[in-house]
Automatic annotation (TrEMBL):
InterPro entries the record matches: Peptidase_M18, Peptidase_M18_dom2
Protein name per UniProt: M18 family aminopeptidase
GO molecular function, one term: metallopeptidase activity
CDD domains to which the protein is assigned, alphabetical: M18_DAP
Lineage: superkingdom: Bacteria
Family annotation (Gene3D superfamilies): Aminopeptidase i, Domain 2, Zn peptidases
Pfam families: Peptidase_M18
E.C. number: 3.4.11.-
Names of the cofactor(s): Zn(2+)
GO biological process entries: proteolysis
GO cellular component, one term: cytoplasm
Classification via NCBIfam families: PRK02813.1
Species: Vreelandella rituensis
Length: 434
């Protein structure tokens, strides 16, 4: 991949990150790009008519997406890429309005395992989806993105809390409600209706419900004297979504390929559109029924002949906290993709799937690293073990090394974006998986 192609990919990545403040926006962005490159949208509620060589995509809950590239010949296996669309953050409560000291605040609940402190003193926007009722009784789901600084969570001055730098805990219920407007009395619904009118021209509507989240307005940026670093919100795991989609679109189309980006990974994946739900399995059954050989046995043979690479970022060796890593397993930023291993199956990697990935890295000349957590520390997990359990497909976990996972602003290596894209593209083009 040339330097100009690399620069173009990073520009697309920064644009994608800026347009994807929520899983619904990320899914919309990916759907638009798929359609622009010839993928056909299918609806789960409609009958499907599939043919060899076809490219299509389908969404569920508007926050999860599966894109499929069928081979021209017989479908014998699928090269699958997996990621997730959600990130930890602050979600608006249904009855969010609070008043204190002459200010309108909006109550929030914590989504996923987020770092609290970096959210203070940030310019915050608000985004998500809103369900409205029109005057004729029609219900509609509308995406909303208030991409201007409408809120902030102010810190308490050190003069009023001299022990703040000694490890004081943050209470998200009482200390993290964003400040929105100076007023003694105000309601949230009129504000919401005003934003919907401003963005979509909607009038004479009734807001029925919403799923909204605050987000940091600071745009993605290349950082460092040589721009070695990429800093942005939601790199975990929109970075993997972008890389997976890039690989799919750059592949030559000779092999059966599938890309799935699921919602709700940060809260366990147990939902209809999460990795623990039936979304991927439903799509595989429909593909097998029309393009495969049909029947349960044929579906099992298809799945066992396939392979899934679950992509979710890995913990990079931190220069200020190097003792947090096993001495032999500290992935370095811009050191290449990271194979994630855990003996207790928190990651789905085994020696067979790891060997395949290492061979792909060798094939395209990309360095490869391995992450194993310290034996005296707990280990997170990904959609990899869940997908392997639910679907039965051979799976491995890989990712780009990053710092500050689950912070409001995370950091990864700009060259690792190119590295992983190249390897995943080779995986989708590979004729033999074993």
């Amino acid at each position: 991949m040339s330097n100009s192609a690399s620069a173009g990919g990073l520009a697309r990545l920064c644009d994608f990150l800026g347009q994807s403040p929520t899983p619904w926006h990320a899914t919309q962005c990916m759907a638009q790009r798929l359609e622009a490159t010839g993928f056909r949208r299918l609806e789960e509620t409609a009958a499907w008519q599939l043919s060899p060589g076809e490219r299509f995509y389908v969404t569920r809950n508007d926050s999860s997406i599966i894109a499929v590239q069928l081979p021209q010949g017989e479908l014998q296996s699928l090269r699958m890429l997996g990621a997730h669309t959600d990130s930890p953050g602050l979600r608006l409560k249904p009855n969010a309005v609070q008043h204190a000291a002459g200010w309108l605040q909006l109550g929030v609940e914590v989504y996923g395992g987020m770092l609290f402190n970096p959210w203070f003193d940030r310019d915050l926007g608000l985004a998500g989806r809103v369900h409205v009722r029109h005057a004729d009784g029609r219900l509609e789901s509308v995406l909303l993105n208030v991409d201007k600084p409408i809120a902030i969570i102010p810190s308490l001055a050190i003069h009023l809390d001299r022990d703040v730098n000694n490890g004081r805990a943050v209470n998200p219920q009482t200390q993290m409600a964003p400040v929105v407007m100076q007023t003694e009395q105000a309601e949230f619904t009129p504000l919401l209706e005003g934003w919907l009118h401003e963005q979509h021209g909607l009038e004479n509507i009734q807001v029925m419900d919403f799923e909204l989240a605050f987000y940091d307005l600071q745009p993605a940026a290349l950082v460092g004297l040589k721009q070695e670093l990429l800093a942005s919100a939601r790199l975990d795991n929109l970075l993997s979504c972008f890389i997976g989609l890039e690989a799919l679109l750059e592949s030559d189309g000779s092999q059966g390929a599938l890309f799935v980006a699921s919602d709700h990974e940060e809260v366990g994946s147990a939902s209809a559109c999460g990795a623990q739900g039936p979304f991927l399995g439903d799509v595989l059954k429909r593909i097998n029924a029309q393009i495969g050989k049909g029947g349960e046995e044929a579906l099992i043979r298809l799945i066992q002949s396939s392979c899934m690479i679950s992509c979710d970022n890995a913990h990079a060796l931190h220069p200020n906290f190097s003792d947090k890593h096993d001495a032999a397993h500290g992935p370095r930023i811009n050191g290449g993709p990271v194979i994630k291993v855990n003996a207790n199956q928190r990651y789905a990697t085994n020696s067979a799937t790891s060997a395949l990935f290492r061979d792909l890295c060798r094939e395209v000349g990309v360095p490869v690293q391995t992450f194993v957590t310290r034996a005296d520390m707990g280990c997170g997990s990904t959609i990899g073990p869940i997908t392997a359990t639910e679907v039965g497909v051979p799976t491995l976990d890989v990712g780009v090394a990053q710092w500050a996972m689950h912070s409001i602003r995370e950091t990864a290596g700009s060259q690792d974006v190119v590295h992983l894209t190249r390897v995943l593209t080779a995986f989708l083009n590979r004729r033999q998986l074993n």
